[in-house]
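pasting for the record
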Amino acid sequence: MSPRRRKQTNRQYAPPAKRSAADIVLRAFYNGSEWRDLSRLYLAEHPTCENPECPAHVAGITEPATQVHHRTSVRADFGRRLDPTNLMALSARCHNALEKRRARA
């Protein structure tokens, strides 16, 4: 069986992942209009990557921000989820790197 077919078969028969109540609340928040509106507004006001460790920033190049990141995780402090001082505009590369680092911690 080819790897592609095996992947499709595994997906087909794999039981659905069980989600915790916190995961359901977070998914609803990130799919909600409050977050979408705030993140669009924040990106409009902060169009470039704000990560001081951004490779482009270090090289003196401005990289466009495409994602909004919570400095303090929403899981850690749900009350700050819409606090603009808890947000940071990031490029996709920087956001992925920060999320990977956060997942390891």
